[in-house]
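Aim 2 progress update. The chain analyzed this quarter is reproduced below.
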Amino acid sequence: MKDDKRAVSPVIGVILMVAITVILAAVIGGFVLGLGDSLNQAPQAQISIDAASTGNAGDVEVSHNGGDAIAAEDLRIAGDYSGDFEAETSITDEFNVGESAIISTGASGETTIRLIHEPSDSIIAEATVDL
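Predicted structure tokens:
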């Protein structure tokens, strides 16, 4: 008898077709259900944190130099000092490009300040400032 190996090819073909079908179903299901959209991403912004030139000890100036506008209610100040960005500044709606906020920390010496985006729990800006 002759060895006939033609049956191997159709078996591998069926396995590959099933694998491709499962992968396509998973990808299409992900798009339809919107699973990728449920992640909160931090806004992309260039923020600088410096000691303010107000003459008051402990004042910090936070400036928005470029990127996305950020809702003030989504921001929190943390580090050696912690506070609500919206309550600590005159910015109550959005923190837009070109705006600056003065925050009175009451701290002195080297102080680390972090600007945190609360929905994504991401640090947008961090600086150590000598107050």
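The chain has a mean pLDDT of 85. The beta strands are 45-51, 59-67, 70-71, 75-79, 83-84, 94-95, 100-104, 110-117, 122-130. These observations will guide the mutagenesis experiments scheduled for the next reporting period.
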